[in-house]
Write the structure tokens for this entry.
Amino acid sequence: MQEKGLWLSLIGSADERHLSEGPPKLTAGDIVGAVEPCFEILSLVSSQFEVRFPSQPKAWVCLMRKR
């Protein structure tokens, strides 16, 4: 990864309580705790995955810069 490179990540949201399937789910605090030592979080936005389920699973869109 380049110095000061950017990383965009889509992460399952722990705010999604009723779906047992799908990606691993994290809270905003989990994400910050895991990446802050190595990355500066530029944006952390609540969103959703667009999938063919009756409901759209919640997600986090996280843009980070390498420290």
User: Anything to note?
Assistant: Helices lie at 28-35. Residues 41 and 64 are 4 Å apart (CA to CA). The beta strands are 6-13, 25-26, 39-48, 58-66.
